[in-house]
Design goal:
- The protein is 21% helix and 35% strand.
- The chain has 213 residues and is an alpha+beta fold.
- It has one domain: Electron Transport, Fmn-binding Protein, Chain A (Pnp Oxidase, Chain A).
- The strands form three sheets. The chain has a seven-stranded antiparallel β-sheet, covered by helices on one side. A three-stranded antiparallel β-sheet has the order 1-11-12, with no helix packed on it.
- A hairpin with a 4-residue loop joins strand 9 and strand 10.
- The chain is globular and about 60 Å long.
- The two termini are 37 Å apart.
């Protein structure tokens, strides 16, 4: 199969949506938790969370244009400046998926989808108690992506909560042991399996290992 730009443009909307969202492979499944100034909590699944830097520790996620429909996550982040990123695990994939339904602002996806709010003292946004890796972030800025009206929301990491036993000796996280879940497209979920662990890459080491084989 060979699809051109014109083929994609002429494709039926849902078919194009599903195909293009799968092109990047499996993406991390995360729940983003926020709270409004009126104390209404919101929880929504995202497949666009990205690492942006380690010093300072920065992470970001993409939000769709707020003009189409109300984006409660975006509104809450801009109101009080805090949000949480919570890893999804196999035990609650179904609940996590249904947070993407169109709930009203006064409805909490935590309650509607059977997940539990958890808080850290001095930090306003809710974490997901069921998640094994929880990150609390403070909003820093947003970058508009002019070509399609989406925005990259950037936050600085203030809290990281995870089991110590899932760390390798060099402080990398064993995502298989953590039972991280990936998303293919918009609604297909995958387990992650570790297939290799290598030292810091240096071309000299690679060439010498080829000779050893």
């Amino acid at each position: 199969m060979h699809l051109t730009k014109e083929d994609l443009i002429n494709m039926e909307r849902i078919e194009r949506l599903n195909l293009v969202n799968c092109l990047g492979g499996a993406k991390p499944a995360n729940l983003i938790g926020t709270i409004s100034n009126e104390g209404k909590t919101n929880l929504s699944i995202f497949n666009s969370v990205v690492h942006l830097g380690s010093n300072p520790a920065l992470m970001g996620f993409i939000v769709r244009p707020p003009k189409e429909v109300r984006r409660h996550t975006y509104e809450n982040v801009r109101q009080n400046g805090s949000f949480t990123i919570n890893m999804v695990h196999p035990e609650f994939v179904r609940q996590a998926h249904y947070t993407s339904a169109k709930f009203e602002a006064e409805e909490s996806e935590f309650e509607a989808c059977g997940l539990t709010e958890e808080y850290v003292e001095g930090f306003s946004a809710p974490f997901v108690k069921e998640s094994k890796l929880k990150i609390g972030l403070q909003y820093l800025s947003e970058i508009p992506i002019l070509i399609n009206g989406t925005m990259l929301i950037i936050g600085q990491v203030e809290h990281v909560i995870l089991p110590e036993e899932v760390l390798f000796e060099d402080n990398q996280i064993d995502l298989e042991k953590l039972e991280a879940v990936g998303i293919g497209g918009l609604n297909t979920y995958y387990n992650l399996e570790k297939i290799g662990y290598y030292p810091y890459a240096r071309k000299e080491d690679f060439r010498s290992s080829e000779k050893d084989q």
